[in-house]
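call fold(seq) -> tokens
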Amino acid sequence: MEAGNDDFSISQDDRKVLSLWENTVSKENDHYVLPIPWTEGVPNFPDNYLVALHRLKGLERRLRRDDMFNRYDENMRKLLSEGYAEKVPEKEIDWRNESVWYIPHHCVTNPSKPDKLRIVFDCACKCQGVSLNDQCLQGPDLTNTLIGILLRFRQFRYAIMADIECMYYQVIVPEKDRNALRFLWWENDSLVHYRMRVHLFGGKWAGSASCFALRRTVQDHDVTDLVRGTVQRNFYIDDMLKSVKTKEDALEVIVDVKRALRDGGFKLTKFVVNDSELLDVIAHEDRAVEVKELTHGVHAKALGMMWEVDLDVFHYTFKIDKGQEITRRNMLSVVASMYDPLGLIVPVVLHGKLLFQEATRLKLDWDDSIPHELSVAWIDWIQSLEELKDLKFMRCVIPEECSAGVSELHVFCDASQHAFGACAYVRSVNPDGKIHVALLASKGRLAPLKQVTIPRLELSACVTAVQLDSLVRRELDLDLMHTTYWSDSKVALGYISNESRRFKTFVANRVSLIRENSDPSQWRHVPGNVNPADVLSRGCDSCDIPKTWREGPEFLKDHKSNWPAFEMVDISDDALIATCEFTDLSEVDDAADAGAIRESILDRLFQQFSSYYRLCKAVAWLLRFRDFLHTKVVKRGQIRATELKEAELCIIKVVQKTAYSGEIRDLLKTGRVSKSSAIYKLSPIMRDGVLVVGGRLVHSFMECKQPPILPKDHVVSDLIVREFHGDAHLGTEWTLSNIRRKFWIVGCRSIVKKVGKRCVVCKRLYSSPMIQKMADLPDVRCQSGGPPFDVVGVDLFGPLKVKVGRAVAKRYGCVFTCFKTRAVHIEVLDSLETDSFINGFIRFVARRGYPSKVYSDNATNLVGADAEMARCLRQMDKAKVISEARRKGIDWVFNPPHASHFGGVWERMIRTIRKILMALLASPSSRSLSDYVLQTVMCECECIINGRPITRSSDDAFDLNALTPNHLLAIRGIHSLPWGDFHTADTYRKLWRHAQYIVSQFWKRWTNEYLPLLQSRSKWQYAKENLKVGDLVLIVDASMPRGLWPLAIVESVKVGRDGLVRSASVRTNSSTFVRPISKLVLLEGDV
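ret:
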């Protein structure tokens, strides 16, 4: 017994199953008995009774909820009444037996047949990792291919369709295997143990067993070849589709096939025929519900194909939800739901696939809405599907008057940048010379996202053609005399006919496959404008499908002597190949193989130049050399302006034939481009061999009313934009307007913006310094507890003028800021000498205690420093300061130079101090201060700042006062004591406990009220790309014009704990500096 699918041979397991059934098959009450093909004998099953019981209870709840329990119960009663199932005898009920397995079952409904309900047994249900299907072999695939059944159904005039009633249930399981097919159900509200007597729907072996038994019926009985062939070749599981030449053959199929199957226990019913006399032969109860009478408009489904029986045609209807949002997911769902096994509406489906592919190129997420322009095109296509109902295809490809003649197969193939494929036509000639041509089937595929040359796609289309021919010849029962292959690509035909040239792997493999399945003499050339496969490679709406798609080109209906003549291209001619790659392709193949220019000399040149002008000069020199080879006339001197224009025109043509070969072909054939084209709205036209804008400004006085069209994603477009941008380095609009005077580049605005962003000159003139996400707060600012001023930041401000006698002296402020409590301590310094600063620091330590860590700016960026202060600070001995601090056990940390924002903690305090000083010293009498007055003012200033709230103040009079640093520094100010926590005596008799309580309350409120306020980032919320070693940067220097800012290379970077870079060491031509990224402008990455 042969497998139904000839593409695959049967495995050793399949042979084992066939051998088992051949040796054990028997009959019981006219039904075949076949055992379950266990993998290794009857298995020992685990106890899955509770699993089945749990599933049954869940099923019952769902059925009662959906009001389907009674219908389901009726189906169960039918299983018993028909003898498909039986009760388990009481003495055998023991479910702990290792040969027992309980199968859960559930309900399946078909939306198109809501009244029909099917019981499906879940043979894949697992218990302890074991399922029934795991213990069985699947058996050989004896099912005929769906496309083969449909192709044979289209052969002849008379068509018969029928269905086997409950096919799976007609094959009996031997009693020894039935305990593995147990199931549970209710009877009068009592749980009953049942088991199947037949092979069941859900078992992975059941399909193979049913097909084996079906074919066995014609082996075990004496039947005619017609009956045997029908049973073996025209059943798709339980559906029979058969076409025959005569009524006599049709009657034999109806009567004898039904009788033969009845002898095997199969009942053939639900007949559909396309002839009234044949329908009268069939009993009324054996007719399909849809076709009780052969009246106008009656239709039935033939393996999913909508068949209008009275007209004997196929047509298509699709129900699509137009209200759903247009996303990639929904687009794919619609395209995948278009059932077309024979490929009769491939051009229509292809249009939808192309739109989906375009959405895929945008790299959107599955549930993102697609752009408006693409959405409009998709809606137009969806609406065009409604017109498919008017598109009809004759079921029979060989009419009755041609059945006595000869038939041959013609396969046309074509490719474009969008898709490629092939379509097969049956050409029948009756003895009187009458010719009939009809589309039999087609196959189409989208071109890959990665661009492939048009000749290679054309060669792939030729491969599809021979594969389609092999499929058709294998499946049809026709005696096809000859196959002729047609292609409009001379290059592809030259590949196939070549005998001597060695091709690259891609071409060689496909040529080899083509020649293994066809002979070069079978291949002919068809002009592109009459090639019916052209619409298959480009897609179209249903209303635009040409007549030639259904009936083939007109010349097939004529005598062979009138078919297109063609002289094969000799691909072994190297000169021709070079010409094909370099010169105007219309001289070779009327632009049919424009894609070959992708591998041309010019295409390689495009990648070698960074300047459009230099590219034009190089092409001009090449053209001059070409002219010399042809004319032997030497042109001397520099390239002239006319030669540059000729070179530019050549470049434009090459680019257009690379990117818009399909549009050019459409314009040459039909005068317009497809609606799915990206340049459809530009109304493109051909002018002097160039694709130009056919817009509305043709009567204007513009310098270039119809500029040539260039694609967005091409190196030449990028070079042109860079050329125009480099003229002035101005904004997008200026560059765009100048480009539009000469070229129309699709999506030009985005290219101009991209070029501007990458332009080093523009970056140097206009780019902002780098920023980075605001860093996380250091540990010392987030941890509660500890003494105030444990970690501080220090900075200087001033100068402040005081009167000493009659002289005026300068004093400076030194502010210490606590990182945790935000308290401040201010010291007055006599000068900016190192010793003066150290003395001020010692006074701070004497009053506040030793800090564990001190942060400060570098001397070059201390806040508020005037020129004299900056000069003094540069002379301050930092080493001496650090040494003195280290001797006291203090860790001193300096921020990077010119990174004032790194010290925001103390900078904010200095600004506050200045505001208070301006208020305190606003009166004229306060302008002349003595040292003592200044000391007093600074203490007052310190008290005011430390009394400021660091948490939000409440409007509720009963709430606690806002928290201030003084609550901790002065150990007072928290007036609301929770008397339940401490005894009153404690606050009077043990003052230290009172103090500890206040400190504890401060840190609790600090944690609960103040710390959350630091959570959000007021700016710099998102991480930017890190500066890297080797990057080229500008160093910001406010002391000189931007054009003189020095260039530098990043030598090293300092990475924070969050992995982000905020400062770097950069090297100029003279020195190395450490700078924050806010003082660097990135020009080029990783030079």
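The radius of gyration is 44 Å.
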